[in-house]
Write a structure and sequence with these properties.
Layout lengths: L11 H14 L8 H8 L3 H13 L5 E4 L3 E4 L1 H24 L7 H8 L5 H11 L24 E2 L9 E6 L4 H10 L6 E4 L7 E6 L6 E4 H4 L2 E5 L3 H12 L2
Antiparallel strand pairs: 1-2, 3-8, 4-5, 4-8, 5-6, 6-7
């Protein structure tokens, strides 16, 4: 079995690089350094440099690469990266909802399958799932036309104390961390507040309207992204109404 390709140079390894640049570059499409790619992909920095040079030399170019400054996706590379990312996140959702994989198991399985499915199979999965907007970890799924909606997210470790937030997504790269999040009740859609205190080693957080709080390690909090809790005022008004004699 060989990966599905749009052209002669789309291999499984190339797909992995393009998807990594897309994810690390973020909404702003920032340049991604060789060292950041090496850490993300688990390869040597020298190998990354060689691959980026090859991707930049292809016709059409898949990346825009400058020595010591890193790489961005070119138009052709971005198109392919979005396609592979859509495959990955749809597969994660399908494995989770229909094959009963837990959310800490789906990433590695989807990594193996994402390169091989056809566009017809992708459409069948999307239709079966009802064309979902997110994967099990809360990450946005690129649309059929390649559009990837923007969503303002902030790492929980950088979120302001006392400001209500909602978990928008969590990193899917560490199964042990995901299992710990399950134990603690941390998943997309859960409201929380970071309480005042030290941030050197851990955060103290409180979930929803609970009164008790607990410590969250830096390793866990650095894998959680949040957005502002826009429903907080609504909940506060309802609570005030219930408390009115």
């Amino acid at each position: 079995m060989t990966p599905k390709r749009n052209g002669p140079h789309h291999t499984e390894a190339v797909d992995d690089y393009l998807k990594a640049i897309l994810e690390l570059g973020g909404v702003a499409e920032d340049r991604v350094t060789s060292n950041a790619l090496a850490r993300h992909l688990g390869v040597r920095a020298a190998s990354v440099t060689g691959m980026l040079q090859k991707l930049a030399a292809q016709k059409p170019a898949l990346v825009k690469y400058e020595k010591h400054r890193g790489a961005r996706l070119a138009a052709a590379g971005r198109m392919r990266a979005l396609e592979v990312l859509r495959h990955h996140r749809l597969l994660e959702r399908f494995l989770h909802e229909f094959l009963d994989y837990s959310w800490d198991e789906v990433h590695d399985e989807a990594e193996r399958l994402e390169h091989f499915i056809s566009e017809r199979f992708e459409d069948r999965i999307a239709d079966k799932l009802g064309d979902p907007e997110t994967d099990p970890h809360g990450h946005l799924i690129p649309q059929r036309n390649g559009a990837l909606p923007a969503r303002p997210e902030v790492l929980l470790s950088n979120w302001a104390c006392g400001v209500p937030a909602v978990i928008s997504s969590v990193s899917d790269r560490d199964p042990a961390a995901l299992r710990e999040m399950t134990r603690l009740g941390l998943q997309p859609g859960v409201a929380l507040t970071v309480e005042a205190g030290t941030r050197n080693a851990s955060l103290r957080i409180r979930l929803g309207d609970r009164t008790e709080s607990f410590r969250l390690s830096q390793a866990i909090s650095s894998g959680i992204s949040v957005t502002a809790d826009r429903n907080c005022r609504t909940r506060s008004r309802k609570a005030a109404i219930r408390a009115t004699p």
